[in-house]
Amino acid sequence: MIKLAVDVMGGDKAPAEILAGAVTFARNNKDTKLILVGIDEAFKDIEIPENCSVVRTEDYLPMDVKPTEALRRKKSTMYTSCRLVKDKEADGVVSAGNTGALLSCATFVVGRIKGIERPTLAVPIPTEKGFSILADAGANIDVKSSVIAQFGIMAVEYAKVMGIENPTVGLLNVGTEQNKGTQREKGAFTLLENIFKEQFLGNIEGNDINKGVVDVIVSDGFAGNVAMKTMEGVAKLISNMIKSEAKKNILGAIGALLMYKTFRNLKKKIDPRMYGGTFFIGVNGVVVKAHGNSDRIAIYNALKVAKNGVKNRLPEKIKEALENVRNSRDSGD
Questions:
Q1: Do domains 2-116+282-318 and 120-271 have the same CATH topology?
Q2: pLDDT tens across 38-53, in order?
Q3: Contact 266, 302 (CB under 8 A)
């Protein structure tokens, strides 16, 4: 049976929405056990399903906590949840808590996969063709070329878990020519080309991301996070402009009504709640970061993501991919 730890106190809407999503998930997934980690007050007047257990602890982390403080507060719900994965009492963990704090706990409590320099935050991005995986989406701001190449290796395995059989890879850059970017990007280009061969399609620009030009977009966390936040902002801008135009006159209202189904499907496609959560990949267990503003729907879907990661052996597949790259280098291929 798959076992997932849930940080009940992580997120802006904790604990009520976190518990609501977790309880609904448990009732609909009898083959999965949830370990609900929270303070005493969180579990008052809550009916716990049979396939759930409760771990009570004394502390929880605020959303503005510093990553270094997260490692000192060993009785917090986040630290305890990650410790359960470290001790093999859980296969994975889901938290909507502070991103930096969760990255610290994932890296230093769950522990890195051998050979991984830095775990990465990999995020599904909606595209014209479905979705692409962006890594890194903000966990690592300043990294070396070799680290960016590792992001590519890990994100490709994530894309495979998400159903993409032979993922193509692109390096986010300021132009498509091979000589574009700083020495870091040029170095990453060479490494990615050597690792992925024909799967690597070279540099891509920001306006290529949502076209679905590649299945995996590799970047440092600074550029990746800026790109992701820009896309979120543009999506909100378009949504607000459509609503504003629809309210101006009767023709706009009629047009909006006729397009209701199309708008509903579009909203569902770009709704971050539907993706639920994203993996911190590169650690010895499944660690899923849910959005800080997650409601019960987002938590339910984050648990689906975590279950899928465990079921498809994502950490093991990353280890195998790294070993294959090492063997390839050793053999001179």
A1: yes
A2: 999 999 988 999 999 9
A3: no
Q: Are 102 and 280 in contact (CB under 8 A)?
A: yes
DSSP state of 106: I
From CA 86, how far away is CA 307, in angstroms rounded?
A: 17
pLDDT cut 90: percent of the chain above it:
70
Which residues have a Cβ under 8 Å from the Cβ of 254 and sit 6 or more positions away?
none
CATH architecture of 2-116+282-318: 3-Layer(aba) Sandwich (3.40)
Tens of pLDDT along 122-161?
A: 988 888 888 899 999 888 888 999 999 999 999 999 999 8
The CB-side HSE value for 174 (13 A sphere, CA atoms) comes to: 8
Domain 120-271 sits in CATH at: 3.40.718.10
- Lay out the sheet containing 216-218: strands in order across: 52-56, 32-38, 2-7, 92-95, 286-290, 277-281, 120-127, 130-135, 216-218, 169-172, 200-204
* Alpha-helical regions (H) of the chain: 16-28, 67-72, 77-86, 99-105, 145-161, 183-196, 221-246, 250-258, 260-270, 272-275, 296-311, 314-331
* Pairing outcome for strands 286-290 and 277-281: antiparallel
Q: What is the pLDDT of residues 318-331, one digit of tens each?
A: 999 998 888 876 66
Q: How far is CA 204 from CA 55, 155, 176, 181, in A?
A: 46, 16, 5, 11
State how far the alpha carbon of 174 is from the alpha carbons of 46, 71, 144, 221, in Å: 52, 37, 17, 15
Can you give the pLDDT at residue 125?
87
Token pair of 35, please? 């370990």
Count the Cβ atoms, other than its own, within 10 Å of residue 27. 12
> Given phi > 0 = left and psi -120 to 50 = alpha, else beta, which region is 181?
left
- The identity of residue 292, as a single letter, is G
Domain ranges of the chain: 2-116+282-318, 120-271
